[in-house]
Amino acid sequence: MQAGTPLVDVPQIRRDGAPQYRTDGPRAICRGLGLVERACALLMSLSAICAFGMDLAGSAQAATQGEAIVKAAASMHGKMYCTDGGTYTGPTHGYGGSGCGGATKGFDCSGLALYAVFQGTGGKVRLPHKASEQAVYGGQVISSQSALQPGDLVFFGGGSMAKAVHVGIYAGNKEVWVAEDYGIPVRLQTLRWIEHGLPFDGGVRYWAGSAPSTPVPSAPPSSGVGGEVAPSAPVGEPPTSSTPPPPTPTYSETPGSVVHTWSDYSDAGGIEGPEIPSNDTVQIACKVEGFAVADGNTWWYRIAEAPWNGYYYGSADAFYNNGATSGSLLGTPFVDPNVPNC
Length: 342
Hints:
Helices cover 20% and strands 19% of the residues. The chain has helices at residues 25-31, 35-74, 109-120, 131-134, 191-197; strands spanning 11-13, 19-21, 80-81, 106-107, 140-142, 153-156, 166-172, 175-178, 187-190, 200-205, 251-253, 261-264, 269-272, 282-289, 299-303, 313-315. It has five helices and 16 strands. The protein starts with 10 loop residues before the first strand and ends in a 27-residue tail after the last strand. Strands 5-10-6-7-8-9 form a six-stranded antiparallel beta sheet. It has a six-stranded antiparallel beta sheet with strand order 11-14-15-16-12-13, with no helix packed on it. It is α+β, with helices and mostly antiparallel strands.
């Protein structure tokens, strides 16, 4: 060290005689200190590294939590589908349906989602047991598939987040862990395949600290939307009746009883959609002949409005059909003639 070198800022004398203090901080001091300068530089570098390390630690913690959600979902691989099945602690009997009798326990789609998120966040996030309510429960909304990260929940089939009818856990690489349908165990599915039958509504991230740690009031379920929807075909293959978006709705119809909806009108199968409650008026896009129901009627309506969005059909014999509610149905076109053919 050079003799007389100041270790702190000291006043300098300007030409007019007034003192002037150095203002260029510790870097300027270090420049004249030799070994001390190197020590200062080292300390400053370590400080920057520590700050960077703290950022990395925060990111790693978030990533680990998202991966923990995926891991929790994957741990249920092979568990059967059970309507209303699944709690925060694991699979349950649900309230019935194929594969849920006896000692069998399993999940439906939102049951798997609430289990995975609860486990992955260390019990901090408790979601409700319904896809449409999970979608609006307070997490960070992800509108683009390109922004999805492992651990995000992905929602489908409602036309909006508040009307979502299906949910899965994004695993990365455009794949999703899902509880699909009756008789189909929990498995990894592709986004592309799910979208053959159910349009993508959006994603929600509950592992980034934006979700509530305790339950909060959620949006009420939409009238007429019940249950959840899940694809039921082999991986990589679309449902047997993949239909394009519907034309503009053309006619209002009101059912006299509960209407079960299906994606495949040719055999009353494929993907089961939400029920239409009795006396709820819905918009019909068009009519088509398909599977003959028990009374012989072969006409089906394509339901245009959300959450059906033209992907589901209901038997026309459940509707009032412009007042035609009496007479023999067998062999008769029990359908409103004002509704155009598909």
